Amino acid sequence: MDPCPFVHLLVGNLALKIPMASKPARSGIHPASSPCFCKIRFNNFPQQTAIVPLIPPQNQFPDGQQPQTLAASFHLSKADLEKLDGKSFFSGKPCLKIAIYTGRRGTTCGVNSGRLLGRVSLPLELVGAECKASVFHNGWISVGKDAKGSSSQLHLNVRAEPDPRFVFQFDGEPERSPQVFQIRGNIRQPVFTCKFSFRNSGGDRNQLSRSSQLESSSSRSWLSSLASERERSGRERKGWSITVHDLSGSPVAVASMVTPFVASPGSDRVSRSNPGAWLILRPGDGTWKPWGRLEAWRERGGSDGLGYRFELMPDTNGSMSAAGIVLAESTLGTSKGGKFVIDTSGFGRSTPANSSSPACSPRCSGDFGYGLWPYCMYRGFVMSSTVVGEGKCSKPVVEVSVQHVNCTEDAAAFVALAAAVDLSMDACRLFSQKVRRELCQRRQDLLG
């Protein structure tokens, strides 16, 4: 399998020096008490927000004690790089823009609560970045239009790294048992097939059906039981499973719904306190071994999004008692969708707004958060998968970093995870609404 070229643009090691006002003033900023944040924008990519730590003017940074932290990152495909290179002829080089604010983040009555301190612009030369790492800036830079006269300074590190990835695309919705193609430019090559199915859970109902036929007065009770079963099944979604096969037909990964998606009492939604869950399984030693666990629920409030949490399962010889390591926890919009992302380069930083980076992941030291922890084999960008909004035709596109794929089973596990995320959008659909026909067991299946 040949990967596609990608570039990972990283912005980190932020710090701000502001001279202390000699006399109290309305516009004075006291470095010890005023919080600061910045908005980071790169061309047409979504804006990211990060906290900027204030340090006394006399201090050196970094002093060897602080861990290096990441404030923002941007993922550029070959098409993105070509588009930026095409624009550079007319509008100059691609530019990273950082606006620094004092005060707390957020809005009050629709007005931003922060006060603009100044802006920083940094042109970037990205030609050849997909082949070799580049450092564009590492040190202090003056804040504001008048660089020579500005007394405030921002410390930052900006660099780009080659990040080749395998790109896969489902040829249809996961519940329709589609093929999965590897994409490289205009080349589409089939690599996997998916099989969606229901686990058989109708044995007890079969027994109920047979025993009811033995009693002449049982028709009413049987119909009552059937009505109760229909009502219960209408309040839960369970038994979904998708198996990924290689081209030889051998199963190489499974995503299995192990906890039903059930409406919380008095509600028509799956709650965060009682999420549904999938287990992602990989073959090993002649059996299936748990690799990861995905939980999903429906968020309340104005966002009304799909909340999720993915954790890596430790290899404990099949034991399910050991705690997993959370690699991703965020929210996807139910109307517009978004991207499910596992990117551990976000460790050690406050997660930007609307980011899919790990929000509750273990802290660690090292270069931009890369350090020694129990699962350091998953570091940097790991994978992403597109998710469409409710009611839309989904054909997930999955990107997996080359460094995390050593065999077919590695890639298949991420494909199975992407299918589980996509199906969770349907599983968390409000129970006042119906799910797709392919996701409903037929009446004869329910009756055995």
Automatic annotation (TrEMBL):
InterPro entries listed in its UniProt record: DUF1005
Xref: Pfam families: DUF1005 (PF06219)
Domain of life: Eukaryota
Protein name: Uncharacterized protein LOC104604209
Provenance organism: Nelumbo nucifera
